[in-house]
Amino acid sequence: MTSFATTEHGTRFAYSISGRPWRPPLILTHSLGSDHGMWAPQVEALKEQYYIVSIDNIGHGESDVPAGDYSVADMADGVMAVADAEQLERFHYCGLSVGGITGQWLGVHHPERLLSATLCNTGAKIGTAELWNERIEIARANGMGGLVDGVIARWFSAGFPETNPERFARARATFLATDPTGYAGVCAAIRDADLRDVVGSISVPTLVIGGIADQAAPIEQSRWLHEQIAGSRLVELPAAHLSNLDREPEFTAALEQFLTESTP
């Protein structure tokens, strides 16, 4: 069942709950062009141990699709609204790609709410303004069909569509079903986000997961984050951008171990 929480600016965020409410809470946020269903393997593996809240980011899934550009602060506001709606005083957070940027923002601005932060396939600054402006233009002019093949090629390693046809088909269908306005709005948020000067202030327990074959957020960005965030740990997987699906067993094992060690 889908639940909803509304930010102070009036944006409604959709989220799904799994697990047991007396367990430690874990909030998951997905990549650009996905939805909360991206985390299905991890939810299935961890739902007995954690109270899992999987959020649809602004402009995606069943969440609101406001017109115009979005910001990372908008996304973080959604996470906080969901956490407040669920009365989660503190929570583990795991985000991939733009979800990882949101996690960095939360680590800087709301460390008192975080038990830990897992930052996956992300960077303090991802891509160039030219790249994101081109994506925005294509999405608005031609819809998601004009982007899908190029984007999906970066999400998974070679051979993934053949060995995991159902997961691949679902990821592609979710991308195509994403509202172009929402996609463009999040592209603008990534374009404008630059946390390089502030990530060094993150003090919560942090796991950085990177993909050695990630073209969207190259492994060098994960290594840099690890160097900047004191006490963080780094896991490098032989994965492309959606490492939680591309190398699901290794990803889930790394996340589970970190959460276990970071739960008071």
Order of helices and strands: EEEHEHEHEHHHHHEHEHH
CA-based shape: globular
CATH architectural group: 3-Layer(aba) Sandwich
Radius of gyration: 17 Å
Mean pLDDT: 98
Give the strand order of the largest sheet, numbering strands 1, 2, ... along the chain.
1-2-4-3-5-6-7-8
User: By CATH's scheme, which homologous superfamily applies?
Assistant: Alpha/Beta hydrolase fold, catalytic domain
What proportion of the residues form beta strands (DSSP E)? 15-25%
Structural class: alpha/beta
What CATH calls the topology is Rossmann fold
The end-to-end distance, rounded to whole angstroms, is 29 Å
Distinct helical segment count: 11
Percentage of residues assigned to helices:
40-55%
The major pleated sheet works out as: 8 strands, mixed
**How many E-type strands?**
8
What is the CATH class designation?
Alpha Beta
